[in-house]
Write a structure and sequence with these properties.
Number of strands: 40
Low-confidence stretches: 1-39, 661-672
Strand content: over 45%
Distance between the termini: 6 Å
Shape: globular
Mean pLDDT: 85
Amino acid sequence: MKRIFIIFIALSAFNHLSAQSENTDSIGSRQLNEVVVTGEKPQVKGQDGMMVVDLPAIVKDKPVSNILEALGYLPGVVNNNGMIGLAGATNVTIILNGELTNMPLQNLYQLLYTTPVDRLKTVEIMYTAPAKYHVNGAVINVVLKTPTPLDGLQGQVRAGYNQAHYGSYGGALAATYAVNDWTFDLNYGLSRTKGWNREQTFSNHLFEGKRTLIEDDMRRISENWSNSIYTSATYKSLRLTYNGQINSSAKGRSLSDGTLGSFVNYYNCGGPVNYHNIAMRYSAPFGLTVGGDYTYYGEKRNQSLYSGSDFIIGEHNKQNINRWHVYLDQQHQLGKWQLNYGVEYQRADDSSSQKIGDSEGFSGTTSEDVADAYIGLQRSFDWGLSFNVSAKGEYYHNNYQHNWNFIPQLGATYYKTPKSIFQLNLSTIRIYPSYWELRNGTSHINPYAKVLGNPSLQPYLNYAAQFSYIFKQKYVATLYAQYADKATVQLPYQSPDELSLIYQTININYKRTVGLNLNVPFNIGYIWNATATANIFNQREKADRFHDISFDNRKWIFYGALNNSFRFTQNSPVSISVDFTYISPSIQGLADLSNMWKVDAGVKWQFGKKRCCELDLQANDIFNRWSPTMTINRAGQDYRMKVHDMARNLKLTFIWRFNGFKPKNDSSIDTSRFGTGK
């Protein structure tokens, strides 16, 4: 079963919060007789409605070894235990080198985790991605260095150990090679992960006119081996890529003690969980790009619930997904105008089944079709304005519903001098539920709590606007507003018809957020580099019908962070970082979430010939306070959950680079919709 609803406050807050740790990268001083001239390298530039960030310079002294960790230091971005969010955006899509090959979230994150930070060239933040990217809404485009035949074989080997409640360990190899018109890339990662969390719940359930207090203390333990591989071969303008992940020996258990007794829920996969994606892309010299990819996902998951040695119920879940995706884009340069148009089609067949005890549950195939066509314009004017605008028509259909959508996008930048840059972004994004949530399935947590599917669940539209001011190519202020029409939420609900706690993803009326995000980097010479981040926003969530109740919940929320790095000499091989983060009480649906705070610290040591070796020691959430308490006390509902996630961990990473490292990579994501544990 997927971790339900809030588990991290980030799911409700960090999509509207920000965390950035920008270091001022000073260009080396140049002595001219008695005059010393010191320049400062720009950190943030603006063009065509996007921010171009020199991320390699920002993370140079940070104890990060891969791109996933580095993204948390972008302006307006927060990396919460490996989950990436962007201030002012409900959803953010990460792409590499501007290209799209649909990849589920966990696979993209695994790829970014195995990709060395040395491969970074720059990063582009687009609150409004032009339609030619085939991505709605906000995008982080990671641009990587391109190898040449003169570079030879380049690569990096990484090994690491992470101690949280349990120990986890793994390693990765990344390499690239170019010869003549060919370029080859390889990323491989192997990891052994064991996780733990604890949830204490107090449910004062109103049933048949009286309150019944049901307490429960649940500990969850999960473990698995994960193999991930990404490889690509490029010949001139033709590229073939493969991305795969195989999780083996995946199992887990939850141990529950409370009012109703002691229970153990065993989870195991009846074979490896398989994800395979193969993609091809060709770019013609006259502006035509054509591509497509095929994805297969397969999972078998068994669940057995026991009370002591007595068997209560068993579940057998199976999911097989086949998805095809093709697109065609055309670009014309008409003087100073750029015209883009294209079409895209995606077909997914989800063959899933569930058997509960002796009953059949459900079985069958659900098909989904998404087709769209777009047109876009882009132009830069000499007097400082540049913009891109696009409009897309989209048709969505599955076994239960179909609809048409019109999706406009606008991104504009006014940039007359480096001192002041203004940006305006308007976007619309459609967010789809996971395939498993659309099934009429049931998963039992214990005899009291269960998770229900929802075949009537609808995708929802999120409208967003952001206005950013970039001062001196360093300081960023972003005023933003979002409106999610028919947004979804999954929260516990005490049934009035039975003594049962129900988790089900449901559409509500709307979710609205208005806020201001500030990022202020500063430094004292080369010794201390820091960034202060402040994000204050008002959040409102409203539902006329959440099961059989209604709610209208709203709150002002504050997020603050101070990220620091220290060097004792300008060329010191050792750097130290200390970061502070705080989130005030917040909301999710009808639930109130407590405040959270954390302190992280790390040391980075580079050594060896040309500093080809690196040792990183990172201590995260040192005081283990980055876990929320959720309270529901509205419309007759009386429920409280205290999450005791083991967010505190100590991570040690060793890196060896050979022959420099300047490779290339390509991939992207949509929101992950695979898996039976929803």
